[in-house]
Design brief:
This protein is of the alpha/beta class. The protein contains 10 helices and 11 strands. The chain has 2 domains: about 90 residues, 3-Layer(aba) Sandwich (Rossmann fold); about 120 residues, NAD(P)-binding Rossmann-like Domain (Rossmann fold, 3-Layer(aba) Sandwich). The strands form 3 sheets. The chain has a 6-stranded parallel beta sheet. Bound molecules: nicotinamide-adenine-dinucleotide (NAD). Nicotinamide-adenine-dinucleotide binds next to helix 10.
Protein backbone atom coordinates (compact mmCIF):
# COMPACT_ATOMS: atom_id res chain seq x y z
CA UNK A 1 0.00 0.00 0.00
CA UNK A 2 1.25 3.53 -0.71
CA UNK A 3 1.93 6.15 1.94
CA UNK A 4 -1.25 8.18 2.41
CA UNK A 5 -0.30 11.86 2.60
CA UNK A 6 -2.56 13.15 5.36
CA UNK A 7 -3.60 16.75 4.73
CA UNK A 8 -5.75 16.84 7.86
CA UNK A 9 -2.80 16.13 10.15
CA UNK A 10 -0.36 18.39 8.28
CA UNK A 11 -2.81 21.30 8.01
CA UNK A 12 -3.51 21.01 11.76
CA UNK A 13 0.27 21.21 12.44
CA UNK A 14 0.54 24.33 10.28
CA UNK A 15 -2.43 26.00 11.96
CA UNK A 16 -0.86 25.29 15.37
CA UNK A 17 2.42 26.83 14.20
CA UNK A 18 0.56 29.91 12.94
CA UNK A 19 -1.34 30.14 16.24
CA UNK A 20 2.00 30.19 18.07
CA UNK A 21 3.38 32.86 15.72
CA UNK A 22 0.24 35.01 16.12
CA UNK A 23 0.50 34.79 19.88
CA UNK A 24 4.18 35.86 19.70
CA UNK A 25 3.16 38.82 17.53
CA UNK A 26 0.48 39.73 20.04
CA UNK A 27 3.08 39.67 22.82
CA UNK A 28 4.98 42.31 20.77
CA UNK A 29 1.80 44.37 20.55
CA UNK A 30 1.07 43.41 16.90
CA UNK A 31 -2.32 41.99 16.01
CA UNK A 32 -3.25 40.28 12.75
CA UNK A 33 -6.49 41.08 10.94
CA UNK A 34 -7.98 39.61 7.74
CA UNK A 35 -10.81 41.34 5.85
CA UNK A 36 -13.01 38.84 3.96
CA UNK A 37 -15.32 40.16 1.24
CA UNK A 38 -18.13 38.10 -0.25
CA UNK A 39 -20.41 39.44 -2.98
CA UNK A 40 -23.76 37.65 -3.29
CA UNK A 41 -24.67 34.49 -1.42
CA UNK A 42 -23.45 31.57 -3.48
CA UNK A 43 -23.84 28.64 -1.02
CA UNK A 44 -20.41 27.09 -1.76
CA UNK A 45 -18.72 30.49 -1.27
CA UNK A 46 -20.58 30.96 2.03
CA UNK A 47 -19.21 27.61 3.25
CA UNK A 48 -15.63 28.57 2.25
CA UNK A 49 -15.95 32.00 3.87
CA UNK A 50 -17.37 30.41 7.05
CA UNK A 51 -14.43 27.97 7.20
CA UNK A 52 -11.93 30.80 6.73
CA UNK A 53 -13.48 32.76 9.59
CA UNK A 54 -13.41 29.65 11.81
CA UNK A 55 -9.72 29.11 11.03
CA UNK A 56 -9.00 32.77 11.85
CA UNK A 57 -10.71 32.36 15.23
CA UNK A 58 -8.65 29.22 15.93
CA UNK A 59 -5.26 30.79 15.19
CA UNK A 60 -6.11 34.11 16.87
CA UNK A 61 -6.44 36.26 13.73
CA UNK A 62 -9.19 38.84 13.82
CA UNK A 63 -11.54 38.59 10.84
CA UNK A 64 -13.67 41.40 9.45
CA UNK A 65 -16.56 40.26 7.34
CA UNK A 66 -18.05 42.21 4.43
CA UNK A 67 -21.12 40.51 3.01
CA UNK A 68 -22.22 42.54 0.00
CA UNK A 69 -25.40 42.17 -2.02
CA UNK A 70 -25.30 40.37 -5.40
CA UNK A 71 -26.11 43.65 -7.17
CA UNK A 72 -23.11 45.52 -5.68
CA UNK A 73 -21.42 47.45 -8.48
CA UNK A 74 -17.78 47.07 -9.41
CA UNK A 75 -17.17 50.69 -8.32
CA UNK A 76 -18.64 50.00 -4.87
CA UNK A 77 -16.48 46.90 -4.46
CA UNK A 78 -13.35 48.75 -5.61
CA UNK A 79 -14.07 51.61 -3.18
CA UNK A 80 -14.27 49.13 -0.30
CA UNK A 81 -10.94 47.56 -1.34
CA UNK A 82 -9.26 50.99 -1.57
CA UNK A 83 -10.59 51.82 1.88
CA UNK A 84 -9.24 48.54 3.31
CA UNK A 85 -5.88 49.08 1.55
CA UNK A 86 -5.53 52.31 3.54
CA UNK A 87 -6.53 50.83 6.91
CA UNK A 88 -3.37 50.15 8.94
CA UNK A 89 -5.14 47.67 11.20
CA UNK A 90 -6.10 45.42 8.22
CA UNK A 91 -3.22 43.12 7.24
CA UNK A 92 -4.87 40.90 4.65
CA UNK A 93 -7.69 41.36 2.12
CA UNK A 94 -9.46 38.39 0.59
CA UNK A 95 -12.19 38.65 -2.03
CA UNK A 96 -14.04 35.34 -2.31
CA UNK A 97 -14.21 34.15 -5.92
CA UNK A 98 -16.12 33.68 -8.13
CA UNK A 99 -17.65 37.16 -8.31
CA UNK A 100 -20.99 37.87 -10.03
CA UNK A 101 -20.67 38.12 -13.82
CA UNK A 102 -21.00 41.94 -13.99
CA UNK A 103 -17.76 42.39 -12.00
CA UNK A 104 -14.33 42.06 -13.62
CA UNK A 105 -12.38 39.71 -11.33
CA UNK A 106 -9.00 40.73 -12.75
CA UNK A 107 -9.63 44.38 -12.03
CA UNK A 108 -10.72 43.56 -8.48
CA UNK A 109 -7.60 41.45 -7.83
CA UNK A 110 -5.40 44.23 -9.23
CA UNK A 111 -7.00 46.73 -6.83
CA UNK A 112 -5.78 44.86 -3.74
CA UNK A 113 -2.56 46.26 -2.26
CA UNK A 114 0.06 43.55 -3.04
CA UNK A 115 1.24 43.86 0.58
CA UNK A 116 -2.22 42.64 1.67
CA UNK A 117 -2.76 40.11 -1.14
CA UNK A 118 -2.93 37.03 1.12
CA UNK A 119 -4.47 34.90 -1.69
CA UNK A 120 -1.38 35.56 -3.83
CA UNK A 121 -3.43 36.29 -6.97
CA UNK A 122 -2.19 39.86 -7.67
CA UNK A 123 0.02 40.08 -10.80
CA UNK A 124 2.80 41.52 -8.62
CA UNK A 125 2.68 38.47 -6.31
CA UNK A 126 2.73 36.11 -9.30
CA UNK A 127 5.61 38.05 -10.87
CA UNK A 128 7.58 37.95 -7.61
CA UNK A 129 7.11 34.18 -7.45
CA UNK A 130 8.29 33.89 -11.04
CA UNK A 131 11.58 35.72 -10.40
CA UNK A 132 12.16 34.30 -6.91
CA UNK A 133 11.41 37.42 -4.88
CA UNK A 134 9.45 37.62 -1.61
CA UNK A 135 5.69 37.87 -1.89
CA UNK A 136 2.51 35.96 -1.21
CA UNK A 137 2.10 32.56 -2.85
CA UNK A 138 -1.25 31.14 -3.92
CA UNK A 139 -2.48 28.99 -1.01
CA UNK A 140 -3.32 25.65 -2.70
CA UNK A 141 0.04 25.14 -4.47
CA UNK A 142 1.93 26.47 -1.42
CA UNK A 143 0.05 23.86 0.63
CA UNK A 144 1.10 21.10 -1.78
CA UNK A 145 4.77 21.99 -1.31
CA UNK A 146 4.24 21.70 2.47
CA UNK A 147 2.52 18.33 2.02
CA UNK A 148 5.49 17.02 0.02
CA UNK A 149 8.17 18.40 2.34
CA UNK A 150 6.48 17.29 5.54
CA UNK A 151 5.91 13.79 4.12
CA UNK A 152 9.62 13.42 3.38
CA UNK A 153 9.27 13.65 -0.42
CA UNK A 154 12.39 15.17 -1.95
CA UNK A 155 11.65 17.52 -4.88
CA UNK A 156 15.15 18.58 -6.02
CA UNK A 157 16.17 16.84 -9.21
CA UNK A 158 12.87 14.98 -9.56
CA UNK A 159 10.74 14.82 -12.70
CA UNK A 160 7.61 16.78 -11.78
CA UNK A 161 4.58 16.83 -14.06
CA UNK A 162 1.71 19.23 -13.35
CA UNK A 163 -1.49 18.51 -15.27
CA UNK A 164 -3.48 21.76 -15.51
CA UNK A 165 -2.31 25.34 -16.16
CA UNK A 166 -4.82 27.50 -14.29
CA UNK A 167 -3.66 30.74 -12.70
CA UNK A 168 -4.59 29.63 -9.20
CA UNK A 169 -3.22 26.06 -9.22
CA UNK A 170 -1.30 24.76 -12.25
CA UNK A 171 0.94 27.72 -13.09
CA UNK A 172 1.99 28.69 -9.53
CA UNK A 173 2.43 24.96 -8.77
CA UNK A 174 4.90 24.64 -11.64
CA UNK A 175 6.81 27.74 -10.46
CA UNK A 176 7.01 26.45 -6.89
CA UNK A 177 8.27 23.03 -7.97
CA UNK A 178 10.88 24.81 -10.09
CA UNK A 179 11.87 26.93 -7.08
CA UNK A 180 12.40 23.64 -5.21
CA UNK A 181 14.73 22.52 -8.04
CA UNK A 182 12.36 20.00 -9.63
CA UNK A 183 12.49 19.40 -13.40
CA UNK A 184 9.04 20.60 -14.33
CA UNK A 185 6.66 19.82 -17.19
CA UNK A 186 3.25 21.48 -17.43
CA UNK A 187 0.61 19.49 -19.30
CA UNK A 188 -2.85 20.76 -20.25
CA UNK A 189 -5.87 20.11 -22.43
CA UNK A 190 -3.83 20.52 -25.66
CA UNK A 191 -0.95 18.27 -24.58
CA UNK A 192 -0.34 15.36 -26.95
CA UNK A 193 0.24 11.86 -25.54
CA UNK A 194 -0.76 12.92 -22.02
CA UNK A 195 -0.34 9.40 -20.62
CA UNK A 196 3.28 9.24 -21.77
CA UNK A 197 4.01 12.72 -20.44
CA UNK A 198 2.39 11.94 -17.08
CA UNK A 199 4.28 8.64 -16.83
CA UNK A 200 7.58 10.52 -16.76
CA UNK A 201 6.68 11.94 -13.37
CA UNK A 202 8.31 11.08 -10.08
CA UNK A 203 5.88 13.65 -8.66
CA UNK A 204 2.56 13.98 -10.48
CA UNK A 205 0.28 16.89 -9.52
CA UNK A 206 -3.19 16.67 -11.02
CA UNK A 207 -5.44 19.76 -11.29
CA UNK A 208 -7.64 19.06 -14.30
CA UNK A 209 -11.08 19.44 -12.78
CA UNK A 210 -12.31 16.08 -14.23
CA UNK A 211 -13.54 13.45 -11.75
CA UNK A 212 -11.32 10.33 -11.58
CA UNK A 213 -9.71 11.08 -14.95
CA UNK A 214 -6.26 9.88 -13.90
CA UNK A 215 -6.05 6.10 -13.80
CA UNK A 216 -2.97 3.90 -13.31
CA UNK A 217 -2.04 4.09 -17.00
CA UNK A 218 -0.97 7.72 -16.39
CA UNK A 219 1.23 6.84 -13.41
CA UNK A 220 4.79 5.51 -13.25
CA UNK A 221 5.41 2.72 -10.73
CA UNK A 222 6.50 4.34 -7.46
CA UNK A 223 5.43 7.91 -8.32
CA UNK A 224 4.07 10.36 -5.74
CA UNK A 225 0.56 11.47 -6.75
CA UNK A 226 -1.05 14.73 -5.58
CA UNK A 227 -4.73 15.11 -6.36
CA UNK A 228 -6.02 18.71 -6.33
CA UNK A 229 -9.49 17.98 -7.74
CA UNK A 230 -12.66 18.16 -5.67
CA UNK A 231 -15.94 16.82 -7.05
CA UNK A 232 -19.16 15.34 -5.74
CA UNK A 233 -20.09 12.07 -7.41
CA UNK A 234 -23.61 10.83 -8.15
CA UNK A 235 -23.93 9.56 -4.53
CA UNK A 236 -22.93 13.00 -3.19
CA UNK A 237 -19.56 11.60 -2.08
CA UNK A 238 -16.38 13.62 -2.60
CA UNK A 239 -13.82 12.41 -5.12
CA UNK A 240 -10.77 13.86 -6.87
CA UNK A 241 -9.30 14.07 -10.37
CA UNK A 242 -7.43 10.82 -9.63
CA UNK A 243 -9.05 7.39 -9.47
CA UNK A 244 -7.68 6.65 -6.00
CA UNK A 245 -8.52 2.91 -5.91
CA UNK A 246 -7.02 2.29 -9.34
CA UNK A 247 -3.85 4.36 -8.82
CA UNK A 248 -3.02 3.45 -5.16
CA UNK A 249 -1.45 0.04 -5.90
CA UNK A 250 1.12 1.51 -8.33
CA UNK A 251 2.22 4.72 -6.57
CA UNK A 252 4.51 5.16 -3.55
CA UNK A 253 2.46 7.98 -1.95
CA UNK A 254 -0.87 9.64 -2.69
CA UNK A 255 -3.20 12.31 -1.29
CA UNK A 256 -6.78 11.20 -0.60
CA UNK A 257 -9.90 13.24 -1.42
CA UNK A 258 -11.21 14.40 1.00
CA UNK A 259 -8.42 14.93 3.53
CA UNK A 260 -5.47 15.58 1.20
CA UNK A 261 -4.89 18.91 -0.54
CA UNK A 262 -8.26 20.41 0.50
CA UNK A 263 -7.49 21.26 4.16
CA UNK A 264 -4.11 22.76 3.19
CA UNK A 265 -5.57 25.77 1.37
CA UNK A 266 -7.02 27.43 4.47
CA UNK A 267 -3.98 26.51 6.59
CA UNK A 268 -1.74 28.31 4.08
CA UNK A 269 -4.11 31.29 4.02
CA UNK A 270 -3.60 31.57 7.79
CA UNK A 271 0.16 31.25 7.23
CA UNK A 272 0.07 34.07 4.66
CA UNK A 273 -1.96 36.30 7.01
CA UNK A 274 0.50 35.82 9.87
CA UNK A 275 3.39 36.55 7.49
CA UNK A 276 1.73 39.66 6.09
CA UNK A 277 2.72 41.52 9.25
CA UNK A 278 6.42 41.14 8.46
CA UNK A 279 5.91 42.09 4.79
CA UNK A 280 4.16 45.34 5.78
P1 LIG B 1 -9.41 24.98 -14.19
O1 LIG B 1 -10.65 24.45 -14.80
O2 LIG B 1 -9.19 26.45 -14.10
O3 LIG B 1 -8.15 24.37 -14.97
C1 LIG B 1 -8.11 23.04 -15.38
C2 LIG B 1 -6.86 22.82 -16.20
O4 LIG B 1 -6.84 21.46 -16.61
C3 LIG B 1 -6.78 23.67 -17.46
O5 LIG B 1 -5.53 24.33 -17.47
C4 LIG B 1 -6.87 22.68 -18.61
O6 LIG B 1 -5.95 22.97 -19.65
C5 LIG B 1 -6.51 21.37 -17.97
N1 LIG B 1 -7.30 20.27 -18.54
C6 LIG B 1 -8.65 20.19 -18.66
N2 LIG B 1 -8.99 19.03 -19.26
C7 LIG B 1 -7.84 18.36 -19.52
C8 LIG B 1 -7.55 17.13 -20.14
N3 LIG B 1 -8.50 16.33 -20.59
N4 LIG B 1 -6.25 16.77 -20.24
C9 LIG B 1 -5.25 17.58 -19.78
N5 LIG B 1 -5.49 18.77 -19.18
C10 LIG B 1 -6.76 19.16 -19.05
O7 LIG B 1 -9.31 24.30 -12.75
P2 LIG B 1 -8.51 24.70 -11.41
O8 LIG B 1 -9.08 25.92 -10.83
O9 LIG B 1 -7.04 24.62 -11.66
O10 LIG B 1 -8.95 23.47 -10.49
C11 LIG B 1 -8.67 22.13 -10.83
C12 LIG B 1 -9.36 21.21 -9.83
O11 LIG B 1 -8.85 21.49 -8.53
C13 LIG B 1 -10.87 21.41 -9.72
O12 LIG B 1 -11.45 20.15 -9.45
C14 LIG B 1 -11.03 22.32 -8.52
O13 LIG B 1 -12.27 22.16 -7.88
C15 LIG B 1 -9.91 21.85 -7.65
N6 LIG B 1 -9.38 22.86 -6.74
C16 LIG B 1 -9.15 22.46 -5.45
C17 LIG B 1 -8.61 23.33 -4.53
C18 LIG B 1 -8.33 22.86 -3.14
O14 LIG B 1 -8.27 23.64 -2.22
N7 LIG B 1 -8.17 21.57 -2.94
C19 LIG B 1 -8.30 24.64 -4.90
C20 LIG B 1 -8.51 25.03 -6.23
C21 LIG B 1 -9.03 24.11 -7.13
Amino acid sequence: MPQIIDGKVISAQIKDEVREKVSQLKAQGKSVCLAVIQVGNDPASSVYVGNKKKACAYVGIESLSYELAEETTQEELLSLIWELNEKKEVNGILVQLPLPGHIDENEVIRAIDPKKDVDGFHPQSVGALCIGQPGFVSCTPAGIIELLKRSGVEIAGKECVVIGRSNIVGKPMALLLLRENGTVTVAHSRTKNLKEVAKRADILVVAVGKPKMITRDYVKEGAVVIDVGIHRNENNKLCGDVDFEDVSPVCSAITPVPGGVGPMTIAMLMYNCANSVSLQ
